[in-house]
Amino acid sequence: MTRSPASLFDHDLVVVTGKGGVGKTTVAAALGVAAARRGLRTIVAEVAARDDLTRILGGEDRSREREVELAHGVHHTSIDPDTALREYLADQLPSRTLAGLLADSRVFGPLAAATPGLRELLTIGMVWELAQPERRSASAEPYDLVILDAPATGHGVAILSAPRSFADSSRNGRVGRHAATIDALLRDPQRTAVVAVARPEELPVNETLQLRDALGDALGLSLSLAVVNRVLTNRLTAAEARQLEEFPVENAAVRATLAVHRRAHTQQAQMARLRRGLDCTVCGLHELPASALGAEQISELARELERVL
Amino acid sequence: MTRHVVHGLTERLADAAIVICAGSGGVGKTTTAAAIGVGLAARGARVAVVTIDPARRLADALGIAELGNDPTPVDPARLTAAGVELRGELWAMTLDPKRTFDDLIERLSPDAHTRDEILENRIYRQVSGTVAGLQEFSAVAKLHELHVSGRFDVVVLDTPPSRNALDFLESPARLTGFFEGRALKAFLLPTGLAARTFGRGTGLLLGALRRITGVELLDDLGVFFRALGGLVDGLRERADVVAGLLTDPGTRFLIVTSTEREPAEEAMFFREQLAAAGMPFGGLIINRVLEPGGPAAGVGAASDAIAPDLEPALGARLAGKVARAYGEALALMERDAQAIERLAQRTGDLHPVIVPELEGGVDGVDALAAVYARLFAV
C-alpha cells in the first residue's frame, strides 16, 4: 500500500533505520530540523549512545539520557539499555531502594542481558514513553514528534519486534501487558512511520529491499520514505557526455567531469532499482563537499527533504 | 599529494600467516580481503579468504554465493580472464557464524543430549545470534581452525561489521568473562537449581526478574546455563587459544577505511586499541578515494580558469557545466586529501595504501583485479 509521504510528520514516531554507515544519524537530524521548522516540538532519540547528533548540531556533550534542546525546537536524547533497565525497575517495583539494589547487583545485569529481547524491549519502551502525551514525570513536556535514530537494519527490526515477542512469551506479567501496549503503537501505520536510509550503491540498496521485507514480516509495516544519501549531481545530457568523450586534447577538467558523470550514472541505476522495489517516495540527498557535517549542512539537507515531505 | 606515492602491501605481508581486515561496514572491507587473497595467491601462496556477507557479485566472482563452513577453491580461470595469474591456490568461504558456534558446541558437548539441549534452547538461540560478540568470536575461531589445519600458508579474514571495533578484539575475553561471570555461577550451583532460584538468598533478585520477564524464560535460562556448564572449561580454553592468535607475530591487522568521517574515526580508534592490546598493525588501506579521471588528476588548472579555456571548443553552456563539475570534484578531492593526511598522522602509517573509488562498483571480478593491482602495486 502506498502511503502519502505528506503525512510523515503526522505520526507520533518516525523510525529511521538502514545499513551501518549510510548516514542514518544525518537523516534523523535533518528530519528533526525539518519537523521543528513546521513548528513541531521534536525529539531525536539516539540508541547507540555515541552522541553523534550532539556533535553534528553543535551542542555540548552533556550527560546522556537527558533531554536536551540542541537547536530551536529540536531536542535530543541518547538511550542506553542499562539506564532503561534502571528506570524500568524503578517504575515497576514497589520501592526505589529495591530497584536500585537490583540494578546495581552484579547478578541481575547479566541475567537481564541474557534474557531474550529484554534490552531491546526496555530501549523501545523509553522511546515509547517519549511519544506519550502524558509523560512519566509530571514536569516533562510532551513532544509532538519522536524521531528514533535506530540501529542498523537487522538490529533495528529486532528492536521494533521485541515488544511483540516479549508479549507473546510472558503474557500474564506486567511487562507482557506493557509490551503489548508498545507493540500496538509500533504496528499502527497511522502513528508509526519507518524511514529507510541508503546510499546509491548495490549493498545498501540490497539491504533496504531486505528491510522492506523484514518490516512487512515482523510488523506488517511498509516504508514511508527512503532517503538516499550522498547522491552526485549529474549535469550532463547524453549528447554532452558524448561531446566531452570526443574532446580532442587531454584536459583534467573534462576527464573529471566525465568520471563524475559515469559515477552518477551508476548511482542513478541503483536509485532506479530502489524505486522499482519500493512503493514509497525515494528522496536523494546531494553529496556535500564539507569535510564534516555541521548545523549548516544539516539545515541544507532538511531543505532538500522538505521538498518531498 | 605526497601520500599518493604507491606503497604496496607486498613487503608488509611478506611473513604473514594471518591477515585480518578490520574497519567499519560499507568501506569495501570484503573486496579488500578478497583482493589481498588474490595478491598472495598470485605470488604462490596457498590462501584461504574468510568473508562475511559478501556482495552478490563478489560472491559469484569467487564462487561462494552459498553460506558454507569450509573454504572451496576459486577457479583460477575466473581471474585469468581478468588478467591475474594465480601461481598458488585461492580458496574462499562465506562464514556462517551461527553454524560455526553450533559446531563448536557440538565438538565440546560430552553427549548428544547435552548438545541438543543447548542448541534447541531459546536462550542459546538468542545469545548465539546476537549477544556477547559471539559472531566475532566465531570468526576468530574459524580463523584459528583454518590456521592450524596446515592446509593454507595464509588465512585472510574479513571481520564482521561491528559498530565498535572492540567487539572484535575483545570477543575472546568477553566470552571467557561471560562463562566465568557470577550469573553463570549462580545458576551452576551444584544442587537444586529451581529451589535456589525461587527460594531464599538470590531468590529476591530472581523473583524480581521473574516478575519482569515471566517464569518460562527463567526456566529456559536455568536449562541453558546448566547444560552449558559442562562446556565452560572447553570454551574457555578455546577462547584463550584464539586470543593468543590475535597477538601472534605472524598476524597482521590491516585497517580498512574510507575518507568519510565516521569510518575514519573508527579506524583511528581501532589503531589505538590495537596498540593498547599489543596486536600487530600491518597498515592502513584507504578505499574509495576520489581521483576523477584516474591518479594524478587534480593537478589541473584552478576551476575558475576552466570555462574560458574550454568555451571555444564546447560552447559557453557545456564549458560552464564542466567548470562547475570540476570545481565540485576538486572540493571533494581536497576533502579526501585532508582526511588521508589526518588518518596517516593519527595511525602512524605515513604511507597508507590508497585505493580509488572504482567506477561501476567494487564487486565483480574486474573490480577485484583492479583493487588487487592497487593493493600490491602491480
Q: How far is the N terminus from the C terminus of chain B?
A: 20 Å
Name the helicity range of chain B. 55-70%
Radius of gyration of CA atoms of chain A, rounded to a whole number: 22 Å
Average of pLDDT of chain A:
83
Mean pLDDT of chain B: 79
- The CATH first-level class of chain A comes to Alpha Beta
> Number of DSSP helices of chain B?
17
Low-confidence stretches of chain A: 1-5
**CA-to-CA gap between the ends of chain A?**
18 Å
- The CATH architecture category of chain A equals 3-Layer(aba) Sandwich
Contiguous low-pLDDT stretches of chain B (5 residues minimum) are 1-6, 190-201, 294-299
Greatest chain-chain interface?
A-B, 72 and 72 residues
Shape of chain A: elongated
- Supply the helix-strand structural class of chain A: alpha/beta
What is the CATH superfamily label of the domain at 2-113 and 133-182 and 236-298 and 344-375 in chain B? Answer: P-loop containing nucleotide triphosphate hydrolases
Strands of chain A, total number = 8
Quaternary structure of the protein:
heterodimer
How much of the sequence lies in strands of chain A comes to 15-25%
Spatial arrangement of strands, main beta sheet of chain A: 3-4-2-5-1-6-7-8
Family (chain A): Belongs to the arsA ATPase family.
GO molecular function, one term (chain A): ATP binding
InterPro entries (chain A): ArsA/GET3_ATPase-like, ATPase_ArsA/GET3, P-loop_NTPase
Domain ArsA/GET3 Anion-transporting ATPase-like (chain A): 13-166, 181-236
